[in-house]
TrEMBL record:
It comes from the Bacteria. This is Transcriptional regulator, contains XRE-family HTH domain. It holds the Pfam family HTH_31. Coiled coil: none annotated. SUPFAM superfamilies: lambda repressor-like DNA-binding domains.
Amino acid sequence: MSNAGRTALPAFLRAAEHDAAREYRRTALGGFLRAHRARIEPDPRWPVVDTHTPRRVTGLRREEIAWAAGVSVDYYTKLEQGRSVRPSAAVVGSLATALQLGPLDRRYLQALTAEDPSDQHSSDVSVQAAEQTLRSIAAQIQDAVMVQVLTGDLTVRSIDPRAARILYPDRDIDDVVGTDVSLLSYLFGDPVSRTVYVDWSAKAREVVGLVHLRMAVAGPTPELLRTIEQLWLSSSAFRYLWSRFEPHDKASGMWRLRIDGQIVECDFATMKTPTSPDIALVVYHRSAAQ
């Protein structure tokens, strides 16, 4: 395959900006369904499973998952092909059960098949007010290893000195402090991220998954669309992870960071204000176990 073929933009990036959310949900639904049925082994007890004919596909065939979900093969095929993206709640529930989805994947599937997420972003005024509140909280957390004020499209707003020293050990922090940093661009565009995040692959999967969930639930911002397009054209790792359609939604956990040449386990927790879910404060502390 030519390089141009490998990097052809997804349909939602070729669509007009006001149609991007709808087009994403249409194509993501098909990709999500295909990815998940490929992970399920056929049950030989099902009447639609032919145990005598060699299988040419990994996982379930369309007719098998359609039977398990109680829908026609034609209807299921339309779902995978993005020709019918408004199944009933009952059909969505049946598909989720047939695909053996966990709670987060069910939430993602429900978001992909719900009403278009038009204008679900917080107003600029509420975001600014929330950011001021979160920054006031961050200023009082003196023992944190790192704090980040993070937007819904995963941009670290006005990066502070603590985060700059950790994320950019190869740069003069005066060149970084106060700037906005896209976590997507940082992880897939700056090689130093693979040194800073010891478990880079897991972090990359998480961030891509957070974007998938964001796109399904609230739709993209213009800035997020531009970032995705840039990475789609420049990063094979991003294209691979994006095409897996694995949503993530983790408000707390642990990451291993390389700080001053040493690997440091850091617990993180996320907090938001009730008035604006589009911005959050992420606080990293050194793990108590260390």
